Amino acid sequence: MDLAKRSPLMRQPPYHRPHDSLWYLRRSVYRRYMMREASSVFIGLWMLNLIIGVLRLSQGEAAWTAWLTWQQHPLMLTFSGLTLIMAMVHSITWFAIAPKAMPKFIAGRAVVHQQVVIGHWLVFGLVSLFLLIAVYWGA
Fold first, then answer.
1. Does residue 30 sit in the same domain as residue 43?
2. Which residues cross the membrane (predicted)?
């Protein structure tokens, strides 16, 4: 639409403040945010790898063995280690921001942020311990 044909209130296009592509490097809070978002990509790729593994398992012993061999390649071992580090970064930052997403008061009492974080870590540890014991006894 031509600017002259617009109503008098809409003669100017909307203002878009310019910003550079490395905006997240200016402040540490932005860098942590981007690190948390980047960790999601690694975890998503690892889950895709596991889905491919299940697909290979359904295709027979030869396909499964080929997938297992690929998992022992140095590239995949490096990727697995990096994904583990990114999963830890994601967990740490996720639990740290959990109290900020909660209401300030529950049943008229103030929520203590440190207690929420400790509670998340306790539940995470108990579930991990339960799964470790279940896998160990099931093997």
1. yes
2. 33-55, 75-97, 118-137
Cα separation, 128 vs 51, whole angstroms: 22
Nearest Cα to 10, choosing from 21, 18, 1?
1
**H/E stretch holding 87:** helix 74-97
E-strand stretches of the chain: 105-106, 109-110
Closest CA relative to residue 39, chosen from 81, 83, 80: 83
User: What are the pLDDT digits (tens) for 26-35?
Assistant: 888 888 888 8
68: Cβ contacts below 8 Å, ≥ 6 apart: none
Question: 76 is in which domain, residue-wise?
Answer: 24-100
Q: Do residues 79 and 29 both lie within one domain?
A: yes
CB burial of 116-133 (b: ≥16 within 10 Å; e: otherwise) equals bbeebeeeeeeeeeeeee
**Model confidence at 127: pLDDT above 60:** yes
Single pTM value for the model: 0.69
Residue with token string 């509670």: 119
